[in-house]
Amino acid sequence: MDIKKELNGDELKVTVSGRLDTTTAPTLEEELKSSIDGIKKLVIDFKDLEYISSAGLRVLLVMQRIMNKQGEMLVTDVNETVMDIFEVTGFSDILTIGK
Amino acid sequence: MSKIKNIIRKMREEFLHTTETLWQNEVNANIFVAQILVGTAVIDLIIMVLGFFNVFTIERRVLYGVLLRALFELLIPAFVCFYYKGQKRWLKTLMLLAYTVVLARVESVLMHNVTLCMVFPTVLSIRYYSRSVTAATAFLTTLLSGIADYVGVVLRMGRLDMNMIELPAGTVLTFDKFALLRDVVTPIMDKVDINHLWIHTLQHFYLPKLFLFSMVAVMAAVIAQRGRETIFEQQKETQKTERISTELNLARDIQANMLPNIFPPFPERKEFDIYATMTPAKEVGGDFYDFYMIDEDHLAMVIADVSGKGIPAAMLMMASKIMIKNFATLRADDPGIILENVNYQITKNNPAEMFVTCWLGILELSTGILKASNAGHEYPCIKRKNGKYEMIRDRHGLVLGAMDMSKYSTYELKLEEGDSLFVYTDGVTEATNKENELFGNDRLVDALNNRESENVIQVIDGVALAIDDFVQDAPQFDDITMLALHYNGEKHMDELTIEATIDNIPTVTAFVDEKLEKLDCPIKAQSQIDIAIDELFSNIAKFAYHPETGPATVKVEVEENPMTVIITFIDHGQPYDPLKAEDPDIHLDAENREVGGLGVYLVKKTMDDVTYEYKDGKNILRIKKKI
């Protein structure tokens, strides 16, 4: 998994590529939590994400809860596999999924 | 206790058996005696006929008086005996008594002419193989013979014999050519000293007979006793034969059970199918086959034929089988060296000069590489996928057990997915029909190729049927043993055992992905499988051995039509069925959502089948995905 962060004022764009699973999810969580202070808009770009497992979903849920309090969170460029998972697990209703 | 009971039961059986044997003999003896009685009656009849034509000098009236009565006295007991089929204890008394009485009466009239016939009952009684019966009969004979003499001479009922009486000098007698004593002596009774006559009879007639009868009685008693002993000896022999036959059957069972005979033997191994049969010609044979996993990746196959038949061959067979297995376990990589070791052992201790032909192959399941060595055994047959069975003219070493330093070379073949192997003993190729033709190599290869055999069982059954067709009713001289293998290729089944930790998830995923890529698995399905692995393996890592860690095994299998990947996760941790957990509510909003249970839920939703079982201390979780 690779994580690329772009900070633009109070907007943070995080590009996650590779696999977001049990092994990699804690790294993402740490990265996000360390840079979330004062962020109004969090954009998570999944353009190059191969798949996500429940450990990754948990990170998304945690971040969604935080962002519900301090702004908004957007998940973009979701591929078919990941979208299926969002739908199956009901995450498509929780997350704001954009293009 | 049960041992003692067994002994008692055995003794009881033996006793009953003995009694039974003696009784059977007595019944047979009764029938025999009855037949002799009938035979005597026939002779009696013949004499009567001859008497009718005046062949004898005896007056017909006298002759018929004796013979007619004898006829009935012989035939009635005989028919009583036939009626009861000889199965009454008193029959022997009845018949021997009747016989003795008949003969004694004849003697009382015909006197010394027929003295010899008084030994008949004693001789006949031998058939009962009983000293007491013979002794009693001899005693009865002697007694009745004495009475006959008394009646014949003293009561003057017997035939005239001038030796029997001493008449005063100058006595003039006139009589016909046949006369009874009374005809001659009664008119001159005043001149005869009756006491003297009696003493004379005892001294000159009865005493010599007494010696004669005693001798006959002793001989008869000894023969009867010997007869009885022979019966016992025979019975012991029979029991011994029965025991040997029982033991032989037992040996055959043991031998049969020594060979792996549960098919499929390794149902969890999808890389190969194997089947083998042995049909012994005699109770115990010298052929054997064997196969076993030396380790997770190596299958050993053995087919062998021990020279000779019966127990010695079976014993060497057992020894060879065990030795090959022992050495194979030590030196899985080189069949030639295994055979060299086994050969050395057999040759060193081979007083019977027997030998073993043997083919040993070790198949590496992951690569299909078959290493084999041949000690004077028949050529193996190999069929390449979509090809035909062909005999492989492999290099032969000397038979095992001939020379202690023989070398055996190992050769290598590579089995590809779909290839088959067939090995057999000479009982197949040397099966002989009534015209003395051998089944032979060509017929074998034809039989292998002629039939549409879908699996290893059909391959062997096909050859067995072809042999039956060829041989027809001719007897089977040799054991017929066959072993067939079908190699499905390694990719159908693979497994990885690894410590169940989060850090090892990528290794497991990579292991499975490698298989999936070979199958051209669609990306989406592969991702879903990878997610499932992540969920399930992380569960095992977190919970199974908590707080310790332990091993987990991941197996990958592939089924065709439809192409399905089956992945099995096995751990020895605490029993835990993740499928039991309730599905999470996926309609709650972010604040109220819980993440627990989501992983397994995801797996259930994306896989085609998920099953869990706890067996032999193992959690076994299996997922199936059509690709």
Describe this structure in words.
The complex is a heterodimer of chains A (99) and B (627). With 99 residues, chain A is an alpha/beta fold. Chain A has one domain (2-98): STAS domain (Transcription Regulator spoIIAA), CATH 3.30.750.24. Chain A is built from four helices and six strands. Chain A has helices spanning 25-34, 54-70, 80-89, 91-94; strands spanning 2-8, 11-20, 41-45, 49-52, 72-76, 97-98. In chain A, strands 1, 2, 3, 4, 5 and 6 form a six-stranded mixed β-sheet that branches. In chain A, helix 1 packs parallel to helix 2. The mean pLDDT of chain A is 88. Chain B is of the alpha+beta class and 627 residues long. In chain B, helix 2 runs antiparallel to helix 3 (91-110). The longest helix of chain B is centred in the middle third of the chain and has 65 residues, at 194-258. The mean pLDDT of chain B is 86. Chain B has three domains: 2-164 and 195-236, no CATH class; 269-488, Phosphatase 2c, domain 1; 491-626, Histidine kinase-like ATPase, C-terminal domain (Heat Shock Protein 90). Chain B is 49% helix and 17% strand. Chain B starts with a helix and ends with a strand. The interface between A and B is medium-sized, with 25 and 28 residues.
Which key terms come to mind for this protein?
heterodimer, A: 99 residues, alpha/beta, Transcription Regulator spoIIAA, 4 helices, 6 strands, 41% helix, B: 627 residues, alpha+beta, Phosphatase 2c, domain 1, Heat Shock Protein 90, 3 domains, six-stranded mixed β-sheet, five-stranded antiparallel β-sheet, elongated
